[in-house]
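Provenance and format

Records in this collection were gathered into a single text stream. Each protein contributes a sequence line and a token line. The two records reproduced below are adjacent in the stream.
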Amino acid sequence: MRVEPFSHSRVPALRAFNQRLAAARAGWRFPEDPNPDWLPRLPRSEVYQELFLLVEDDDVRGAYVLKHQPVSFRGQVVRVGNLYMPLSEGIINRTYSLVGARLFSDALRRESLLFALGLGGAAAQVTGLVRALGWELHTVPFFFKVLHGPEFLKHIRYLRTNRIRKLLLDLAAASGMGWLAVSAARRLLTRRPRASEPLSAEVVERFEEWADELWHTCATGYSFVAVRTSEILNRLYPPGRPGLIRLCIRSGDQVIGYVVLQDEQSSLHAEFLGRMRVGTIVDNLSLPEHAEAVMWLAAQHLEQRGVDVIISNQSHPAWRSALHRAGFLEGPSRCVFAAAKLLAQEIRREDPYVREVHLTRGDGDWPWGVNLRVEEEMT
């Protein structure tokens, strides 16, 4: 077996690999084009992804994606690797049970400072693998805010676990109790942020110089955070991509933050059964003391657009507190931040208790990876 870059000559074998995974009801498929339509390698670009295959003779037995990117440790910028979509034939054939470890080992050889984000939660098979490899694991909490009670009650999978619960939830939705409960919860939980200057959110088509100034202001405020310059943000969230909304957040005339949102009619979230209009807080940045204002305006914008529920994953305590004060509840998370040994050591050198790491959904393969999920996405 050998690991090699994905090339056009391997497309038929990769398709056969995907077909075997699909026949076994695996929840993912690997992209079948060697040239990704998101973050291809470009001259002078600091952020790009590469696709690799583990090949046995002429058959593909595993695959993974490696994103190369700069990150900041309190303002000191270094390059790291972000591994996602590790797929192994070992999930359907025990003969290949070591393929997963081989994929992670190959990625570490290419980028010694390596992490993965997502992985399907603490109980997932791949999470057990990285734990066995000695990686450090941290759960990235999941938050949700219900805006339309009846729709939520009719579709929430996490609560609809048996016939009795389904019946009770349907009755609550039909009777109006769901609307009353949601309205009461929003009034009780939501706290408007205090601000000395008027707060505003402007929809922008792309990130400009103001985003660079914001990044340089915020970089030292976090022990570990992906570099978020305008050039990188415009690559991650390309102008013109449907469903993405970029907000520039101001206090008076001063830019204090940004947020990237997604508004979609989707059934891709396993915590929701069926199709609801889901608003996602994909990415965000400000100084920690401005997190409350940023989350408040983000939620207000999505609420005005008419979404049924808003979701987000946030690692930093300031952002988690901001979501709570914006009326969000915390649910069961299946998003794990896994740091390889060398990277974990670097983070703890700046942050011994790993309390000031800033991670969002946008630090993984979002939004590119959602198109590669076959089954419904987990939180």
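Adjacent record:
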Amino acid sequence: MKRPLIAIGLVVVIALPVLFMGALLAIAGDDVSPSDKALEEIPSDLLPVYMSAASTCDGLDWTVLAAIHRVETNFGRGRATSSKGAQGPMQFMPATWRSYGVDGDGNGVADINDLDDAIFSAAFLLCENGAGDPARLTDAIWNYNHSDQYVAEVLDLAASYGIVTFGGAVVAASPSQVLTNPRITMTANARSDVEAGVVDARILALLDAISRRFPIGISVLKTGHSKYVAGTDRISNHFYGRAVDVSFVAGAPVSTSNHAAREVVMFLAGLGAAVGPDEVGNPFGHLEFPGGFTDADHADHIHIGFDNKDDGLH
């Protein structure tokens, strides 16, 4: 975890089970920019606070803090006490606050009802529970509020608040670059396809781009996939080397609970016609965009495919 950019003062640390742990950011959003929905719903002065709070937790996106704040108090600014005794903008129980409340604004006091303090403290708690690791984010949010429905709502909101840029443009990548990339693992068949030069250059470029953000695991490119799209007589893009199935993202299997996989799909959805794929099969049915689809065959991987022959990297 990164060291805070503003002083964090723990109020009192007592021997309770660790529920959360947080973080701070100063300038953020290199990888995740606010979506139109975020700009419409989130008060503009809160965006830099979320970003500052997220920056001290490697791997935690500011969108998660924004989503929790929205679910808990609808971006509330003042004092708020729930029927169970949770207090403040991010709804901390007093005992949890005594352990993990931090001085987010650097005024020397950690106040459960102060907006900055509450957001930084939420980040601190989440990070302690592993939120910086995409494979553990779901569990970290569940420990913030023990409800599967709550987790799903937060993840859906977080996905809708961010546009994933992955910090750079999609550029050409050679087969050797992909083969020697330690952040891309492949089955023997997939590796053989890359070595044989039968993989579309656009697929190689996207794998390289995605790996800059998350390590990924490739299950199939061409060899080992059926010639036809399941249940049809249409020839699959896999047959032409124009498709790939990504089965692991950030060390975890692709599933609806893998937030990193969700970010990959968001990234692909935002590429546009110039370099974006024609097909993005994925488990996230609520993320609707041209070319995106969800069915039982794509519940455990991200399928990326191009319909037309590569005529250069556009």
